[in-house]
Specification:
The complex is a heterodimer of chains A (410) and B (371). Chain A has 410 residues and is an alpha/beta fold. Chain A contains eleven helices and 17 strands. Chain B has a domain of 242 residues. The chains are: A alpha/beta (410), B mainly alpha (371). The interface between A and B is large, with 47 and 44 residues.
């Protein structure tokens, strides 16, 4: 027994020594750094960036942000801190406040539900710039240090639709389906404008190439649910959909499509490794240009736009490498041609001549751009023959149900 | 070696009651061993300096005064749910539905915050929130208790299933009350009027929660240890037959205790919605209903020890987040360390209750001639 006690005591002492010896040392390491930071801040504003992510890198959505954050910070030589797994609640405010305590003067959050809590932090720390992806309130909140950003991902989805349309035409030519059977399926997260804008632009891309195409949409009511997304794919395939796309964050649907040999267009990143036979192409938002822009503004003391929308031209909307094994021949050339037309403005995704609502062509549409929680449409967004998506604020507001698209579980 | 005399290398014997100094020496030793094991794992798996990792875990909770407040707030919320499930545990009723009971309490609070403004003054809204949350939690726990008392259904499964029902209900109302349309997200409720928000004490956002839970903790301690109800709960937990024999109405005790259990869970939901987050999401309870089971067990169902065990768990959780940020390690690495530490702590209970007797004498007697 004595031996054991002696051993324990020895361990305690060793550990106590090590712990005491180290803890202050660690602090010393940090302290001068922090001091120089605050000193330099007064001279020229050095940027220290803090990022808040809903999940960690296992979510395709967050991984896309994490990679962009690292890329932008390393390019600009900015010191950064990442906080992963932050829920859409008070934890987001706490995380933001802790990042401010760590000396961050630029804070970015990636999930829609973070917005209210980030605004709460922005009000409390006016000297710190807060940027939020996918949010809607920056232009109405009127805070000088709170900003929204998004990208014209509808252009990327339109391109994905073009690749899908090429595939449908190939299937029709090969006699696998008739032109009337060219039905595509789409798995959406929520019936929310961001998702509606996404699937409508995808569908318009499909119909741009394959005019007889129709589409069925199902919702999972979750941003990340592999089981529900897989079941959604099964349901659509059973309904006779011959090609599938989606807007949700797991690999549930792609693996189901691969198992059934159904070609699909993905989002956020490539699925070519997991689904070599059916994955055609994916679009994704590249957040690095926005992060670089915003951090450069902080560095140079310039104001950041309340709403910033990246485009194909700013490299904010990217397509993954085309999977030639699944895509129809000639897709790459067609994509290059359409992309050029989108970039120079000669082709508009939401051209009102290309879709109808209840059989009618739209000449004006009031959208709920100023999201005051009242659901009151306030801004006419149709002019010059097309729907002006992401111009009055960065987050999408196209929420029209157009002809040709059926919501099967609405 | 003489085969006839061979006995196992060691055998296990039940210990008598140990003095508290010894039990705590064993527990302390377990924590130390756990830290050493974690240090080894850290070094071999990640190549980081384990002492820096520990310093980082410490800083995650105590680095700044803000972190201390966040720590205390999280301890308070975990403790609140743990206190709630404890009376049921004491009577051997395995209520693992704390998650759902707290969630349904939160749903009731959010409903009042959303539907009542304009109809009632602020104080009345807060009163309605409190009553409805506590009632909702109590009903959610009362349903399985009723079935258990009347038809002896399995309470573990029943309370577990009620969690999922509550989660789906909340998900449904998140869609009903969503803003903007279609997003499935409620956002902060009454951000400008702050109607239904619990008052803030001075500049301390979380002080009110902490004080309320401290009061609940004290009340629970007194209730369980010094009241007739508390005694009845213990007797039912020890033996239902004995309880019946001495004239305790077991059915009534089960239902009454579960109503209390659910009511305190409802209070936790109320604090999460009305005082902390001011919003409602299906994940707002954040697994506390399940972690509470561990908190309560580790503390041997003693409300005062639960302060310590809930502190330990929150401390480890906050530390896990901090090392994820500082070392670029995945949050899962922090969870691995937490798992190792809990393994040692739970394992130490074995050594408190049992002792291992090695075949020492045999080795000495036989070993010598050979040498």
């Amino acid at each position: 027994m004595k031996k054991i006690i002696a051993l324990l005591l020895a361990l305690v002492m060793v550990f106590a020594l090590a712990a005491c010896g180290n803890a202050p040392a660690a602090k010393d390491d940090n302290a001068p750094e922090a001091k120089t930071k605050t000193e330099t801040k007064t001279d020229s504003p050095a940027v220290k960036a803090g990022f808040i992510f809903l999940h960690d890198e296992n979510s395709t959505y967050d991984l896309n942000f994490i990679n962009a954050a690292k890329e932008a910070c390393e390019k600009l030589g900015v010191e950064y801190l990442l906080k992963t797994g932050i829920p859409e609640g008070q934890e987001c405010y706490d995380a933001a406040a802790e990042l401010v305590d760590e000396g961050c003067n630029f804070i970015f959050a990636d999930s829609f539900g973070h917005e209210d809590f980030l605004i709460q932090a922005a009000k409390e720390f006016p000297a710190v710039q807060f940027c939020h992806a996918t949010g809607t309130k920056a232009h109405t909140e009127g805070l000088a240090n709170y900003h929204n950003a998004f990208a014209s991902i509808y252009e990327g989805r339109f391109l994905g639709g073009v690749a899908a349309g090429m595939k449908l035409n190939q299937m029709i030519e090969e006699g696998k389906i008739t032109a009337d059977e060219a039905k595509v399926g789409y798995i959406g997260a929520y019936p929310y404008a961001e998702v509606k804008s996404g699937y409508t632009s995808f569908f318009l891309g499909v119909r741009y190439i394959c005019p007889s195409a129709t589409m069925e949409v199902t919702f999972t009511n979750s941003w990340y649910d592999p089981t529900l997304e897989k079941e959604g794919a099964t349901k659509l395939i059973n309904n006779g959909c011959v090609l599938i796309s989606e807007h949700a964050d797991s690999m549930g649907a792609p693996t189901e499509c691969e198992a059934n040999g159904i070609p699909f267009v993905f989002y956020n990143g490539s699925a070519a490794d997991a689904c070599p036979n059916t994955f055609i192409i994916a679009s994704r938002i590249n957040w690095a240009p926005y992060m670089e822009y915003a951090m450069t503004c902080v560095k140079e003391g310039k104001a950041i736009d309340a709403d910033w929308t990246g485009t194909i031209a700013t490299d904010s909307v990217l397509m993954t490498e085309l999977n030639e094994a699944a895509a129809a021949p000639g897709t790459a050339e067609k994509l290059a041609e359409v992309k050029a037309a989108l970039a120079d403005g000669s082709l508009k995704v939401f051209d009102t001549a290309t879709f109808t609502v209840g059989g009618q062509t739209l000449t004006e549409y009031l959208a709920d751009v100023d999201d005051m929680g009242d659901f009151q449409p306030d801004t006419n967004v149709i002019a010059d023959g097309y729907f002006h998506e992401s111009e009055y604020r960065s987050a999408p507001y196209f929420d029209i149900d157009i002809d040709g698209i059926t919501k099967i579980d609405a | 070696m003489n085969k006839k005399q061979q006995e196992p290398l060691f055998h296990i014997a039940k210990r008598g009651a140990l003095p508290w100094t010894k039990t705590w020496a064993i527990r302390g030793g377990a924590v130390l061993l756990a830290l050493i094991a974690c240090a080894l794992i850290t070094t071999f798996v990640t190549g980081e300096n384990p002492l820096q990792v520990y310093a980082s875990i410490w800083n995650g909770s105590f680095g700044t005064s803000r972190k201390v407040w966040v720590l205390l707030q999280n301890v308070a919320m975990l403790l609140c749910v743990s206190l709630a499930v404890t009376p049921a545990f004491r009577m051997r009723f395995w209520n693992i539905g704390g998650e759902g009971q707290a969630l349904i309490g939160g749903l009731a609070a959010a409903a009042c915050m959303i539907l009542l403004p304009g109809k009632l003054p602020n104080w009345a809204i807060i009163l309605c929130m409190t009553l409805s949350s506590v009632l909702a939690g109590a009903i959610w726990a009362g349903i399985p208790a009723f079935f258990k008392a009347k038809w002896n259904t399995n309470e573990t499964l029943f309370t577990l299933m009620m969690n999922y029902v509550a989660t789906q209900l909340v998900a449904y109302y998140c869609v009903v009350w969503e803003s903007p349309k279609g997003s499935g997200n409620i956002g902060i409720i009454n951000p400008n009027t702050q109607l239904g928000w619990f008052p803030q004490i001075g500049s301390y956002k979380y002080l009110l929660n902490i004080l309320i839970v401290a009061a609940v903790c004290l009340a629970m301690y007194v209730y369980l240890n010094y009241s007739k109800h508390g005694y009845e709960i213990s007797v039912v937990g020890e033996s239902e037959r004995t309880a019946r024999y001495v004239g305790i109405k077991v059915d009534r005790v089960i239902i009454r205790t579960m109503l209390l259990s659910g009511a305190v869970c409802g209070l936790a939901g109320l604090l999460l919605v009305g005082s902390t987050n001011h919003t409602l999401t299906p994940t707002i309870v954040d697994g506390r209903g399940f972690t509470a089971v561990m908190v309560s067990w580790l503390a041997k169902f003693n409300p005062v020890w639960m302060i310590l065990t809930s502190f330990l768990l929150v401390f480890l959780q906050r530390g896990a987040g901090e090392i994820a940020t500082n070392f670029g390690l995945n949050q899962s690495f922090g969870d691995i360390l937490t798992g190792v530490i809990l393994f040692f702590i739970i394992g130490s209970e074995f050594f408190i209750n049992y002792r291992i007797i090695f075949r020492r004498k045999a080795v000495k007697e036989e070993g010598k001639p050979h040498v």
